[in-house]
Amino acid sequence: MARYHELNLYRAKLNDIREIMHSMKTLAQMEAHKLTRIIQQQRALKAQIDNVALDFLHFFPTALSADKIVGKTVLAVGSERGFCGDFNGKLLQTFQERFADDSVQLIAIGNKLQPLVEDRANTLPLPGANVTEEIGNLVELVIKTLAEQTQTGTLYAVFHNEKQMEPAIEKLLPAFTEMAATENVHRYPPELNLPPDDFMLELTDHALQHALQRIFTVSLMAENQQRIHHLENATQHLDQKTEQLQKRMNVLRQEAIIEEIEVILLNQANLTTPEEAYSGS
């Protein structure tokens, strides 16, 4: 029975762990549901910004700077929390495959990503976002950090997209340089209240803020999706382990009952006197 009680205590601990994981999965599902609506709105806004930029650059192509870009910075958007599988490992692998040069300034976002790059030179760690409401503060922190850098000429982002199996790479600065030309523009140039160069600067700032907001949002969405999948596998493993323990406990319980019956029969036999045994025969 001692072994039975040990297994029963172990099973109770597994049940407690399962309840915690189930709660974490529920929170991740709620966060993912909230992010879905925000991502749809952000995609619509990105399309509007791209249309404005296409229309503007069609009439003012010289607004794009032709100066030589000095310095390269990469934002690697990892996770702030765990229980999301190899989320950060894949992100780091993609970064290393594309940006092997140690001179690249790396901004590592996320508490769980930072230990993987702590030995790398030219690396600046920043905290990530746990929930949707923290993304705005993260955008402000990143923009402030970029403004303090002396060589933020070209800016890339390495992040998980919620619709891709592998991390994506997106060029953020200089803005609009990789935008394909289109014929769907207005016949007349836009009426500007600013000089074209100043307007381009304002549009670039707006596009950068929105791009960071969008990237952090889809990354958090992908993180929660992987967390849901990871926790589902973990809870299934715990359920299987609990079922095995229950079967083992049932066997031990049956063995204990059999032992109790044998002891009762043995005691009954010892209480029978020789006269009772003779008279009974």
Explain the layout of strands and helices:
Layout: H1 2-59, E1 72-77, H2 87-98, E2 105-109, H3 114-117, E3 123-126, H4 135-148, E4 154-159, E5 168-173, H5 196-271, H6 274-280
Parallel strand pairs: 1-2, 1-4, 2-3
Antiparallel strand pairs: 4-5
Mean pLDDT: 87
- Classified in CATH, the superfamily is ATP synthase, F1 complex, gamma subunit
Which architecture does the CATH hierarchy give at level 2? 3-Layer(aba) Sandwich
CATH topology: Pyruvate Kinase, Chain: A, domain 1
Question: What structural class should be given to the helix and strand makeup?
Answer: alpha/beta
Could you say which overall geometry the principal axes of the C-alpha atoms support?
A: elongated
Distance between the termini: 38 Å
Q: Pick out the low-confidence regions.
A: none
Pattern of helices and strands: HEHEHEHEEHH
Largest sheet: 5 strands, mixed
By DSSP (H or I, 4+ residues per run), the number of helices equals: 6
SS strand fraction? 5-15%
Tally of individual domains: 1
CATH class: Alpha Beta
Number of strands: 5
| Major sheet strand order | 3-2-1-4-5
Measured as a percent range, the helix fraction is 55-70%
Radius of gyration: 32 Å
